[in-house]
């Protein structure tokens, strides 16, 4: 099948056509023409504002398979990811059982062959993600683990982080950690501030993130290695990472694309679809996140896709599970709320995640396999439960107008389109 993207603006710094408007022809899964001339095709995609980039990479998403497929399985996650513009997705290891064996890695790799999205396995740092004994990370790396993290379980022990940083260095492995001092956040429900006090809820203090970032950076200075902070949310943590980068430490970080969409003062009180971890923080933290994205301190944007079934969300706020689904809305939410230039936004979905994870570049050039996302950055749309591909429906964005529409993806020879053209 031949697909023509007519007059598409290219966002791909590795391409000679970066920021140019060109016709792009894809045949049999490969790019066969880029230029101004009209080409014959079986399918033509043409509309005002048509844009294309290398396929987007998500560094933080959760699928329940195996063990918790009722929340999300690999097929439904891949379908949601493709609709959201992602061609590669890093999966958190917190399944049942935890991803910590060669068999678990191979299970994910084997399942990805027929899907329109490449699922990248992250393996647990510690056995059963309990924060105690290290897993066999060398064997897991050789089996195909892309990174190492305990995912939704923040690493607490300084000795564990120190040993992991040292253990990963012989093969240049990446340690990822969500910085949270869990003793300081115990029973916390939302950001600790005036709003939590007014609502009578136990707060999650910014301090819990900040002290953990500071400690982990000290360990990185001592041990060396590569460290990535997942889901940064506070101003002080961003400042510490900015200083560490200036110092020359190998540290990177990401933020959930939705993190500045709301603050603790603007969430709908007691609506569990606003219950995320880390929580929506203060207005000052939101400003710091935007500044960190603009100056390059924050390297990547992630979906932080965390599906929860109805029984986990339709509860009193303090009993409900944390997390929202965001694979399908990640780009639009970022494009709507972050005030980030489009070129920089796309870089944080494409170039930087691939660099951090050690993935090959995806270049839009004749002769290259097509790995691309097609989108219209100025088109508005309304996410809805009826059109969602996820098995779960825990989102505060349903029915809320967003700016930036994903039109489709082309990856592994598969074309996925959202709507007709």
UniProtKB/TrEMBL annotation:
Domain of life per record: Bacteria
Listed name of the protein: Dihydroorotase
CDD domains, A to Z: DHOase_IIa
Keywords assigned by UniProt, alphabetized: Pyrimidine biosynthesis
Pfam family, one: DHOase
Domain Dihydroorotase catalytic, chain residue ranges per copy: 55-234
């Amino acid at each position: 099948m031949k697909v023509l993207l007519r007059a598409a603006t290219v966002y791909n710094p590795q391409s000679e056509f970066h920021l140019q408007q060109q016709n792009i022809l894809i045949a049999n899964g490969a790019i066969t023409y880029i230029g101004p001339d009209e080409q014959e095709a079986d399918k033509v995609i043409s509309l005002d504002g048509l844009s294309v980039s290398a396929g987007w990479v998500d560094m933080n998403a959760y699928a329940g398979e195996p063990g918790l497929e009722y929340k999300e399985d690999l097929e439904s996650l891949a379908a949601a990811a493709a609709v959201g513009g992602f061609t590669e997705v890093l999966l958190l290891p917190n399944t049942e059982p935890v991803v910590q064996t060669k068999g678990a890695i191979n299970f994910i790799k084997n399942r990805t062959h027929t899907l329109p999205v490449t699922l990248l396995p992250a393996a647990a740092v510690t056995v059963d993600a309990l924060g105690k004994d290290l897993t066999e990370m060398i064997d897991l790396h050789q089996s195909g683990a892309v990174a190492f993290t305990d995912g939704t379980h923040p690493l607490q022990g300084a000795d564990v982080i120190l040993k992991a940083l040292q253990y990963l260095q012989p093969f240049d492995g990446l340690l990822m950690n969500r910085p949270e001092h869990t003793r300081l956040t115990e029973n916390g429900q939302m950001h600790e501030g005036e709003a939590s006090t007014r609502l009578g809820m136990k707060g999650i203090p910014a301090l819990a993130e900040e002290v953990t970032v500071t400690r982990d950076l000290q360990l990185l200075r001592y041990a060396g290695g590569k460290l990535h902070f997942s889901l940064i949310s506070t101003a002080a943590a961003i400042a510490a990472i900015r200083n560490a980068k200036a110092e020359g430490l190998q540290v990177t970080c990401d933020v959930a694309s939705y993190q500045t969409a709301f603050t603790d003062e603007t969430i709908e009180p007691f609506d569990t679809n606003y219950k995320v971890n880390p929580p929506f923080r203060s207005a000052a933290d939101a400003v710091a996140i935007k500044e960190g994205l603009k100056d390059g301190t924050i390297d990547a944007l992630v979906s932080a896709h965390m599906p929860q079934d109805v029984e986990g969300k339709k509860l009193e706020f303090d009993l409900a599970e944390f997390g929202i689904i965001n694979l399908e809305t990640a780009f639009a939410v970022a494009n709507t709320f972050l005030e980030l230039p489009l070129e920089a936004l796309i870089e944080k979905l494409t170039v930087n995640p691939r660099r951090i994870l050690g993935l090959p570049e995806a270049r839009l050039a004749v002769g290259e396999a097509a790995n691309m996302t097609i989108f219209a950055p100025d088109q508005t749309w309304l996410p809805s439960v009826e059109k969602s591909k996820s098995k779960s429906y825990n989102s505060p964005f349903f029915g809320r107008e967003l700016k930036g529409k994903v039109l489709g993806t082309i990856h592994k020879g598969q074309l996925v389109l959202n709507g007709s053209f």
